[in-house]
Amino acid sequence: MAADTGDSRPLQVPKRLLDAVGDDPAEPVRSWLDSLPQLAARRLGAWELTPERVVTPGGRGGLVVLVRQADGTPAALKFPVPGPGRGDEAAALAHWNGWGAARLLRASSEDGALLIERLQSAVSLRSLPEAKALLEAAGTVRRLWVPPPADSFGTVEERTGAAAEMLPTLASGAWAADVRPLADEALELRSGLTAQPPERLLLHGDFRQGKVLAGERTPWLAVGPRPVVGERAYDLARLVLDRCEDLAAGPGPAAAARRRIAKLADSLDVDRDRLRGWSLFRAVEAGLRHGAAGDRRRAELLLEFAGWL
Questions:
Q1: DSSP-assigned letter for residue 155
Q2: How far, in Å, CA of 119 to CA of 252, rounded?
Q3: Same topology for domains 2-118 and 123-308, yes or no?
Q4: Over the stretch 255-273, which tens digit does the pLDDT of each residue have?
Q5: How far apart, in whole angstroms, are the C-alpha atoms of residue 40 and residue 256?
Q6: 76 neighbors 117 (Cβ within 8 angstroms)
Q7: Alpha carbon 133 to its chain's center
Q8: Is 62 left (phi over 0), alpha (psi -120 to 50) or beta?
Q9: Quick one: which of 261, 197, 181 has its CA closest to 229?
Q10: Which of 145, 206, 234, 283 could form a disulfide with 226 if both were Cys (CB 3.0 to 4.6 A apart)?
Q11: Residue 91 near residue 149 (C-beta atoms within 8 A)
């Protein structure tokens, strides 16, 4: 699938994106995917952008094209997959205004397109040794934790509430029989964690090493938020799960996982128990989702990680 941009370099929609949303039953998503080449061509023309290349393999949340603006300045043009909260990424980037995250240059309410400061898409924190990556990640995410704009984003309670409702169903499959006690624990932990949230801050929502890219005006900047309002421990929990395959391959993975929690919690002044609780919940929820989607290898790794906690 390619976009007619008026030159000899059609824009190919990456296979990863096609695989991620190609079978989505929602009509808006199917229509968006079918019309994406035309949407891209129109937006390139309307904003006077010259395409260089599509970022591949890219992400599952949208199409990203590296472009040049009319004055030659590099940028990245993104078309997020339509769905609930489609405009939240633009709102969060605008609120941060380049503080800890890529700067939003333009946004279209018509087709959801975002023109974003160009970062080095091939260089993320995952390219660093783990200890250095976690240090830089902690320094980046703390900049994002700011008071949110009024009434503009959903809350952690709402987001995890939807996930919690699905856990019993996801854990009911025969393959998941052994992890039902973990699912029960995750639900109990989530209930306690959401009863009295200690703070209300704007969170990235999907913060991990692959979402932090090398920049020019500052060494590392976050991209691709799924913004939500809540406590820092929820945001940090996704980082705890990052590169869990490295822990699994090393000696004493359970102790290493607990040390990671302690180190991150202490470096960012986050309560260790709350970080452990959210890490376990997010590991179980993600593991069961991967298992239900047929990715047993990833599911088993995440659920094993949850067991270590």
A1: B
A2: 36
A3: no
A4: 999 999 999 999 999 999 9
A5: 45
A6: yes
A7: 17
A8: left
A9: 197
A10: 206
A11: yes
